[in-house]
Amino acid sequence: MFVYINDKKFEAKTGERLIDIARNNHTHIGYFCGGNGICQTCYVKVTEGMHLLSPLNDREKAMLSDSLIKEGIRVACLTTLDKLGTVKLLTTVEEVKKTFEEKPLELVPYQAKMGWESLIKFPETIVMQARRFSEGKLDAWQLVTDIAGAIAGAFELVGMAIQGTLDWKVKPKTFTREYADTSEHRSNGKKGQTAEGAHKTSPEIHESLKLQKHAPVN
Questions:
Q1: What is the value of pTM for the model shown?
Q2: How far apart are CA 28 and CA 33, in angstroms?
Q3: How crowded is the C-beta side of 64, counted as CA atoms within 13 Å?
Q4: For FRET with 38, which of 126, 148, 157, 198 sits at 20 to 30 Å CA-CA?
Q5: For 114-172, how does the pLDDT look when each residue is reduced to its tens digit (9 = 90+)?
Q6: Of residues 6 and 215, which shows the higher confidence score?
Q7: Separation of alpha carbons 76 and 37, rounded Å
Q8: Alpha helices (H) in the chain, listed in sequence order
Q9: What are the angstrom distances between the C-alpha of 170 and each of 158, 159, 175?
Q10: pLDDT, tens digit, for every residue of 2-25?
Q11: How does 22-35 read in b/e, with b if 16+ C-beta sit within 10 Å?
């Protein structure tokens, strides 16, 4: 099956998390906590194929407001591909970028909305995370390791972006010399005329420009 992340097409298999598909293909989805469902930076908007994804679980419901759920927002580290088909995603980072480029005046309201939606779910999110720690479902050492991996991955993405920019700047310009095809003219030249000239007649000279014939002077 295929997953489109920010209009880029990637192959994926059922059972994979959205966050892992992005990381494996070096596509940016925020994941500061290493995909442990803590930092809330891996929000994605599902624009197509929501029915192919895993249902909302209790952890997602604790983190996402009803408004965000209606907009098609999912938590990438908590969402997996359940069925075959095509899924299209838009990351929050890319959405901010597009808003800034196309509708810059809507950027501040957008950020305010996302901040407010996170704030109203903050108490419920804290309770959910505390329960995970108390039940031993969140290993502190594993969390530190995953965060370190996420930071390393972020630096790798930055390095790739910088390298791509440098390659574009230093890429030499190439020019291709083109030659006109004169074979037809040469072949017709042997006959004393070109193909085009064969169909042309000499232009008539205006009467005023013609040399007048005079009788010879004795």
A1: 0.58
A2: 14
A3: 25
A4: 157
A5: 888 888 887 887 787 778 777 777 655 555 554 455 445 444 544 544 455 455 555 55
A6: 6
A7: 9
A8: 18-24, 58-63, 66-70, 92-102, 107-120, 122-134, 140-170, 183-189
A9: 19, 16, 16
A10: 999 999 999 999 999 999 998 888
A11: bbeeebbbbbbbbb
> Rounded to an integer, what distance in angstroms lies between the CA atom of residue 95 and that of residue 97?
5
Superfamily of domain 2-170: Beta-grasp domain (3.10.20.30)
Dist CA 23 CA 19 (whole Å): 6
Q: Cβ(19)–Cβ(76) under 8 Å? A: yes
For residue 213 the two structure tokens come to 């014939």
Helices 122-134, 107-120: axis angle to 10 degrees equals 50
Q: Model confidence at 110, in pLDDT bands (50, 70, 90)? A: confident
Amino acid at 85: G
| Residue 121, C-beta contacts closer than 8 angstroms, at least 6 positions apart | 62, 63, 64, 65
Burial of 110 (0-12, 13-18, 19+ CB in 10 A): middle
Are 41 and 91 contacting, i.e. CB atoms less than 8 angstroms apart?
Answer: no
Interstrand relation of 43-48 and 86-91 (parallel, antiparallel or unpaired):
antiparallel
Burial state string for 72-104 with b = 16 or more CB within 10 A and e = fewer than 16 = ebbbbbbbbbeeeeebbbbbbbbbeeebeeeee
